[in-house]
Amino acid sequence: MSDRKTNLDARAVAGIVLCCGLWGLNQVATKVALAEIAPLLQAGLRSLGAALLVALWSRARGQALRGGAPAGAWRGGLLAGALFAAEFGCIFIGLQYTSASRMVVFVYLAPFVVALGMPLIARAERLSGLQAAGLLVAFTGVAWAFGESFNGPATAGSHQWLGDALGVLAALLWGCTTLSIRATRLSAAPAEVTLLYQLGVSGVLLLVASALAGEPWPARVGALSMAMMGFQIVVVSFASYLLWFELLRRYPATKLSAFTLLTPLAGLLAGVALLDEPLTARLVAATVAVCVGIAAVNRRPR
Predict the structure, then answer these.
(1) pLDDT at site 1
(2) How confident is the model at residue 15 (pLDDT cuts 50, 70, 90)?
(3) Average pLDDT of the chain?
(4) Which pLDDT tens digit goes with each residue over 89-103?
(5) Is residue 69's pLDDT more than 70?
(6) Which of 105, 128, 217, 277 to pair with 122, CA 20 to 30 A apart?
């Protein structure tokens, strides 16, 4: 694309940091809503609700979704939506066998999947040795923040290895979702089209998975859970994902993906601010490591 940039500018950095902050808050919102709304059902409703908002947004702007994408982009759209749904399925099933903190570490292997795969799509996005080291430092910061869950014997039962494996698979699926968007004709489509495919397909698949898993529909949903669902639908799945896909259209996927390592730390910091969780020296050190690593990944060559 003629408007694609090779480095992140101030606008891109501000946008991706905003997304990571919102995704971190989403972890808190999801945890609160889980008290009344089952996980797969919650994810499916969130996707379909946001898909409706994308359609209304495009209609209000006079943008034709059907004609806005290049021919054949629907194949990439179906693939991205299916990968997105499978990722959530792996996470929610895996959480039955392993702890949430261990799951976070494995899921955020996804930037490495993007870093390894993007040079096959765009050679210009190959990371240098210093940038690869920066990505490793940033991931080490995330692993350090959640490292206490790896100490001692398995705390989630004898099948903890299965949950960990599903976390790694979720990371692979997340990375492949990003790669599929860049590798197919969907990369030339407007962000609204890309997002509508991902939300629509994943919403249907997640609700089917919820039904197959026998998740109950809530008999009553309180005001707090409704507010958390509203935040997930409007702010996270609609607004922040729309911004994310617009960034993917214009900036290097490898450098953007490195910033996503801020998300789990943003979730921990949100827990400190909103749930009165302790601010530890481990969390501060991990945040510094992630920031240093991201700076190295995005260092411009001389």
Answers:
(1) 44
(2) very high
(3) 85
(4) 888 888 778 877 788
(5) no
(6) 105
> Would residue 44 count as lying in a domain?
yes
Q: Within 13 Å and on the Cβ side, how many CA atoms surround 248?
A: 29
Q: How far apart are the first and last CA of the chain?
A: 25
Residue 70 has a CB neighbour count (10 Å cut-off) of: 14
Query: Does 3 reside within a domain?
Result: no
Contact, 104 vs 146, CB < 8 A?
A: yes
Domain total in the chain: 1
Is the pLDDT assigned to residue 2 strictly greater than 50? no
CA distance 35 to 223: 12
Residue of 232, 246, 226, 233 lying closest to 56 (CA atoms): 233
**Cα–Cα distance for residue pair 26/104, rounded to 1 Å:** 14
Sign (positive/negative) of CA torsion 32, 37, 39, 44? negative
Q: Is the separation of the CB atoms in 166 and 76 below 8 Å? A: no
Residue 216: the pLDDT is: 92
Contact between residue 81 and residue 144 where contact means Cβ atoms under 8 Å apart: no
Is 302 inside a domain boundary? no
d(CA 207, CA 48): 9
Least confident residue range of 23-32, 47-56, 105-114, 162-171: 23-32
Domain that holds residue 116: 10-297
Q: How far apart are CA 212 and CA 89, in angstroms?
A: 12
Question: How buried is 88 (Cβ within 10 angstroms: 0-12 exposed, 13-18 middle, 19+ buried)?
Answer: buried
- Rounded-to-integer distance, Cα 115 and Cα 257, Å: 8
Does the residue 4 lie in any domain?
no
